[in-house]
Amino acid sequence: MDYFETNLKLLQKHDPALAIRVKEHSFPENVKVSMSKEGLPVPQIAGISLHSKYHPGKEALQLTQGFQVRNDSRTVVFGLGFGYHILPLIEKSEVTVIEPFMTIFRAFMSSVDLAPFLPKVRFRIAETPASLLARHEPTQWNIFEHVPSVRLGEAYYQQLYNGIETRNYIGKKPLRILVVKPIYGGSLPTAVYCLEALKNLGHEVESVDCDKFADGFFSIKEATKIKANAEVLSQKFLNLMGEITAAKAAEFRPDLILALAQAPLSPDAISRLKELNVPIAFWFVEDFRTLPYWKEVSSSYDHFFTIQDKEFHSELIGAGVRDSYYLPQAAHPDVHRPLNLSFDQKKLYKADISFMGAAYHNRVQSFPRLLDRDFKIWGTGWNVDSPLGKRLQNNNKRVTTNETVNIYNAAKINLNLHSSSFHYGINPEGDFVNPRTFEIAACKGFQLLDYRSDLVNLFNLNDELVVFKSFEELNEQISFYLKNPDLRNEIAIRSYQRVLGEHTIEHRMQELLIHVFMSRMDSLQKNKENKLDPLSYCIEKAGEDTELGQYLKQFEGTKNFSLKTLSEDIQKGEGDLDDNETLLMMLDQLIQEKV
After folding, report:
1. CATH superfamily of 174-326
2. Helix, strand, or coil here: 251?
3. What pLDDT band is residue 568 in, cutting at 50, 70 and 90?
4. What residues contact residue 411 under an 8 Å CB cut-off, 6+ apart?
5. CA-CA distance, 13 to 160, in Å (whole number)?
6. Which of the four pLDDT bands, split at 50, 70 and 90, describes residue 570?
């Protein structure tokens, strides 16, 4: 019996995104299924049988019999197989199953009844270790290994263990991170949010504020009308910014250098930074088809993070990039949040439909269809003399971040149409999600947005976000949702919860850090030991949780810390000396005698 269609309908109710992903796959040719003597199907892949060929049910009971569920952690199973070992475990607690191969999950969906597993099982299939650890599972894990599965996916599970070690380490040992901002542009706010998010995660962060040089950059470009000379001057400016970054990095001694899209770092500047022997990462939060400058710098970075997957990553591999990693945009809840607007703010920003953004070609061509509605526009580049321009609320002046948050909070419907310079409406090949999607959701705003292929991996469509694939469909949705405010509110709340749970800038920065350092733990630990000041070194060696470690921590922030600092403090005290104080006084005395 083939269970696939029945299981797919069931999975759609519990995990729509995974249902869409598995639906794209046919039954794998490399998975062979045979019947055991017990009458249960058993998968075999690459010559490895994932369960007993005789009694897989009895085998599962024996394997899980001694596994202890802990209340302080989540039960996580490494390896799916056909799930026989999972059934005894869900009698004890809810379970998360991590399986690296979609082929095995597809075979499972065809061969085994899914009903007994839901809703107590959360399937995490073919997701990167860093994503799992940063986005989905913030709690401690109580791991059960399904040995045949772990043997089959050995490299993946080793990465996962490395990721767990990395997450735990950087949670206790803050990193020193240098963020290189762009000079100008739409990625500048993202750079600021990254800086703040990394600080919120407890890391020590400094920035190269390239945006402070924006006026000089534009003045240089206007100094001559001769194109060749202008390019020479621009290159000299970029070289200067590279020198400034190198000087800042040499002084700060970071564990990681993170540059954001359009950061003014040339391949030569990146090469110089590599002399510090720390990883250098780049987050390209742009459309690779629109801004092709990535071709000049991408291979120079150790790690290249992108908001687009698949096609772009194929291009990056062809360009010689050693490590490319998909990292979508996100919201920054310190900024993007629900507000209680005043009466005057509501009056100013309230509308049935609001749009905040620049006047890209596809928007100018499409928005006139909404002029028969209560429709307000904020942004830049709009023709104020056109019928559409009459709806502009800010006279093409720059809209502040605070105003943007007010707009998202006040609108009944936030319209979110991704920009395009050459489409007349919706980009049928849209394969990235703009920050506005996450930011509106973080404000608990309701939005209608054009369909993007990547959305199914980020939200449950229609349940958390409503998308349109044509402007006829958009008009129908506007009419429907204006009449159903309670439904709008329910969807907005679910979207808000999803963003706070998985799609904040802090989630993205944690994922980035885990990915970068999961293969660099030895060098990270060695570098951090070399950078320790005397007090930090003593605390490290004593152990933070020991009595001596706790005693030493009270001196954090003391300049020119030494053994003399401790002896002077002890002498100020009253009462008998404890063991640690006696030992320290004896050491100080011995050193003085030698001197």
Report:
1. Glycogen Phosphorylase B; (3.40.50.2000)
2. helix
3. confident
4. 349, 350, 351, 352, 353, 354, 376, 445, 446
5. 28
6. confident
Residues 6+ apart with CB under 8 A from 339: 405, 406, 409, 443
pLDDT at 592 over 60: no
Tokens of 392: 């502009």
Residue reference for tokens 């639906």: 23
Of the two residues 184 and 547, the one the predictor is more confident about is: 184
Q: Identify the residue with better confidence: 138 or 422.
A: 422
| Alpha-carbon separation of residue 507 from 156, 325, 339 (angstroms) | 21, 15, 23
Distance CA 43, CA 57 (A): 14
Tokens 């599972």 belong to: 137
Total residues belonging to the chain: 595
pLDDT of residue 594 exceeding 70? no
CA atoms 166, 249, 261, 378: torsion sign: positive
**Partner residues linked to 284 by β-bridges:** 306
- Which of helix, strand or coil describes residue 304? strand
**Residue carrying the six token digits 């001596």:** 548
Ranges for all domains in the chain classified under CATH 3.40.50.2000: 174-326, 343-503
Q: Residue for token digits 């002029």?
A: 371
Task: Evaluate if residue 593 carries a pLDDT over 60.
Answer: no
Q: How confident is the model at residue 562 (pLDDT cuts 50, 70, 90)?
A: low
Query: For residue 148, what pLDDT band results from cuts at 50, 70 and 90?
Result: very high
CA pair distance 363, 307, nearest whole angstrom: 22
Task: Evaluate whether 269 touches 235 at the Cβ level (below 8 Å).
Answer: no
Contact between 259 and 304 (Cβ < 8 Å)? no
Residues 393, 376 contacting (CB under 8 angstroms): yes
Q: State the pLDDT confidence band at 135, using cuts at 50, 70 and 90.
A: confident
* Higher pLDDT, residue 576 or 397: 397
The C-alpha angle with vertex 406 and arms to 401 and 412, in degrees rounded to 5, equals 135
Of 212, 179, 216, 217, the residue nearest 195 (C-alpha): 179
Q: Residues 6 or more apart from 461 whose CB is under 8 A from it?
A: 16, 455, 467
> What's CA 398's distance to the chain center, in Å?
28
pLDDT category at 595 given cuts 50, 70, 90 is very low
* Stated pTM of the model: 0.87
Identity of the amino acid at 411: A
Please state the separation of Cα 377 from the chain's center in Å: 30
Distance of alpha carbon 417 from the chain centroid: 23
**Which class in CATH covers the domain with range 343-503?**
alpha beta
Residue type, 346: K
Q: Is the pLDDT of residue 340 over 80?
A: yes
CATH number of 4-170: 3.40.50
Alpha carbon 1 to chain centroid, angstroms:
40
Q: Indicate the residue type of 362.
A: N
CA-to-CA dists, residue 452 to 96, 253, 418, 478, angstroms: 28, 41, 9, 19
